[in-house]
Amino acid sequence: MKNILSMSQLSNEEVYSLIDSAEKFKAGKKSMIGTDKFAINLFFENSTRTKSSFQVAEMKLGMKEIEFEASTSSTTKGESLYDTIKTEESIGASVAIIRHSQDKYYEDLVNNHNLNIHIINGGDGTGQHPSQSLLDLMTIFEHFGKFDGLKIGIIGDLSHSRVAHSNAEILTRLGAQVCFGGLDAWYTPEFAEMGPHMDVDDLCREMDVVMLLRVQHERLSEEENKNFSKTDYFNKYGLNKERVNMMKADAMIMHPAPINRGAEIADDVVECDKSYIFPQMANGVFMRMAMIEAVLEGDNVRDEATDQERQAVLH
């Protein structure tokens, strides 16, 4: 695969292959496929986990990072995203990890431009977040060894969450039953096509995985933020110890973070026995190693094909 842009782009076989590769990295597999290659992390929205996780993954694969800060880049002078990426490609970057506020920013780049650099989507607007989705799948698969037949509850700010869009789509395709909770206004027709909206207490009792989402205040309207009550939201939809005790013995609590303690989750639940929030983050490094390796391996295949063509001409 040349690029990894959305979960809909990946076949089920490719998803399982990436999980297998990530698990091998976690078990100690070494790869220096990135030796003498450069990565550029183009983050036009704030990030802690995704950006630092990709940076560590790149270093573990032997890559060097070209430093980039959106606030001091030529994009502030009007340079287009394409020209920025083409510049980094021209000076030697092999992989660009991009987070951008525009939904599907990558479509124009891959369909209408001459780019040879690999692009991995680090999150687009409220659209897709493939690396987060894949690390979530890895964490679930480690625990249950399957997806088919699992019940997954996603609770929170569905309509603004790229994690919700990516996970609901791929988990449904892999055979899980996905259900939703939270404010009715965030349960849009897109999600209604995939699963029912349920009371949070019922979700906690019935689900194998309870996946919480942050309320994305930066994407809410001024009026929505003005009327939002953290206490009311937590009482209605938040995960507290009482609701944790309702869950199945082997159920998982997940959250892509950042965590708003006391809003979607209680402070004493974040690291409880059923919580996989920090193991998710640890798995993120291994999954992002697998993603980078997957796109770089395509270069090796093309290089080998070119060498064979050269040899055929010589002989």
UniProtKB/TrEMBL annotation:
Residues 148-293 form the Aspartate/ornithine carbamoyltransferase Asp/Orn-binding domain. SUPFAM superfamilies: Aspartate/ornithine carbamoyltransferase (SSF53671). Carbamoyl phosphate binds at R49, T50, R99, H129, Q132, A257, P258. Belongs to the aspartate/ornithine carbamoyltransferase superfamily. ATCase family. GO terms for molecular function: amino acid binding; aspartate carbamoyltransferase activity. Keywords: Pyrimidine biosynthesis, Transferase. InterPro entries: Asp/Orn_carbamoyltranf_P-bd, Asp/Orn_carbamoylTrfase, Asp/Orn_carbamoylTrfase_sf, Asp_carbamoyltransf, Asp_carbamoyltransf_Asp/Orn-bd. It catalyses: carbamoyl phosphate + L-aspartate = N-carbamoyl-L-aspartate + phosphate + H(+). Residues 2-142 form the Aspartate/ornithine carbamoyltransferase carbamoyl-P binding domain. Gene3D superfamilies: Aspartate/ornithine carbamoyltransferase. Its EC number is 2.1.3.2. The keyword Nucleotide-binding does not apply. Pfam families: OTCace (PF00185), OTCace_N (PF02729). One of its GO terms (cellular component) is cytosol. PANTHER family: ASPARTATE CARBAMOYLTRANSFERASE, ORNITHINE CARBAMOYLTRANSFERASE, MITOCHONDRIAL. GO terms for biological process: 'de novo' pyrimidine nucleobase biosynthetic process; 'de novo' UMP biosynthetic process; amino acid metabolic process. Catalyzes the condensation of carbamoyl phosphate and aspartate to form carbamoyl aspartate and inorganic phosphate, the committed step in the de novo pyrimidine nucleotide biosynthesis pathway. HAMAP family: Asp_carb_tr. PROSITE patterns: CARBAMOYLTRANSFERASE (PS00097). It is an enzyme of class 2 (transferase). This is Aspartate carbamoyltransferase. Heterododecamer (2C3:3R2) of six catalytic PyrB chains organized as two trimers (C3), and six regulatory PyrI chains organized as three dimers (R2). L-aspartate binds at K77, R162, R214. It comes from the Bacteria.
